Amino acid sequence: MPPFRVYDQTMDILAANEWHWWIAVVLTPASILTVLAVIGGYLFKVVKPKYPPRYKKQTPDI
Fold first, then answer.
1. Nearest in space to 48 (alpha carbons), one of 40, 38, 36, 56
2. What is the DSSP letter of 59?
Protein backbone atom coordinates (compact mmCIF):
# COMPACT_ATOMS: atom_id res chain seq x y z
CA MET A 1 0.00 0.00 0.00
CA PRO A 2 1.51 3.36 -0.98
CA PRO A 3 2.11 5.81 1.87
CA PHE A 4 -0.20 8.48 0.43
CA ARG A 5 -3.19 6.10 0.67
CA VAL A 6 -2.64 5.71 4.41
CA TYR A 7 -2.38 9.49 4.71
CA ASP A 8 -5.61 9.94 2.72
CA GLN A 9 -7.49 7.45 4.90
CA THR A 10 -6.24 9.13 8.06
CA MET A 11 -7.22 12.56 6.77
CA ASP A 12 -10.67 11.26 5.78
CA ILE A 13 -11.23 10.06 9.33
CA LEU A 14 -10.03 13.36 10.79
CA ALA A 15 -12.15 15.36 8.35
CA ALA A 16 -15.21 13.33 9.32
CA ASN A 17 -14.58 14.11 12.96
CA GLU A 18 -14.16 17.83 12.23
CA TRP A 19 -17.29 17.86 10.08
CA HIS A 20 -19.21 16.26 12.93
CA TRP A 21 -18.20 19.01 15.33
CA TRP A 22 -19.03 21.81 12.91
CA ILE A 23 -22.50 20.39 12.35
CA ALA A 24 -23.01 20.40 16.12
CA VAL A 25 -21.85 24.02 16.33
CA VAL A 26 -24.43 25.04 13.74
CA LEU A 27 -27.34 22.83 14.84
CA THR A 28 -27.19 23.51 18.59
CA PRO A 29 -27.95 27.27 18.47
CA ALA A 30 -30.47 26.71 15.67
CA SER A 31 -32.29 24.10 17.76
CA ILE A 32 -32.30 26.31 20.85
CA LEU A 33 -33.64 29.28 18.87
CA THR A 34 -36.33 27.10 17.30
CA VAL A 35 -37.54 25.87 20.69
CA LEU A 36 -37.56 29.44 22.06
CA ALA A 37 -39.47 30.66 18.99
CA VAL A 38 -42.11 27.94 19.40
CA ILE A 39 -42.54 28.78 23.09
CA GLY A 40 -42.69 32.52 22.34
CA GLY A 41 -45.20 31.99 19.55
CA TYR A 42 -47.37 29.86 21.82
CA LEU A 43 -47.32 32.48 24.55
CA PHE A 44 -48.08 35.28 22.09
CA LYS A 45 -50.85 33.55 20.13
CA VAL A 46 -52.53 31.38 22.78
CA VAL A 47 -51.85 32.71 26.27
CA LYS A 48 -51.85 36.46 25.63
CA PRO A 49 -55.43 36.60 24.25
CA LYS A 50 -56.70 34.75 27.34
CA TYR A 51 -55.39 37.46 29.64
CA PRO A 52 -56.02 40.90 28.17
CA PRO A 53 -54.42 43.94 29.83
CA ARG A 54 -56.31 45.26 32.86
CA TYR A 55 -56.38 48.88 31.80
CA LYS A 56 -56.94 49.49 28.14
CA LYS A 57 -56.57 52.94 26.71
CA GLN A 58 -59.98 53.97 25.52
CA THR A 59 -60.27 55.69 22.22
CA PRO A 60 -62.47 58.75 22.23
CA ASP A 61 -65.75 58.33 20.38
CA ILE A 62 -65.92 60.98 17.71
1. 40
2. P
12 or 51: which leads in pLDDT = 51
Query: pLDDT over 90 for what percent of the chain?
Result: 35
CA separation, residue 12 to residues 7, 20, 22, 55, 57 (Å): 9, 12, 15, 65, 65
Q: Give the span between the Cα atoms of 11 and 34, in whole angstroms.
A: 34
Integer Cα distance of 56 and 7 in angstroms: 72
Asked whether the predicted pLDDT for residue 37 surpasses 80, the reply is yes
Among candidates 19, 41, 23, which has minimal Cα distance to 31?
A: 23
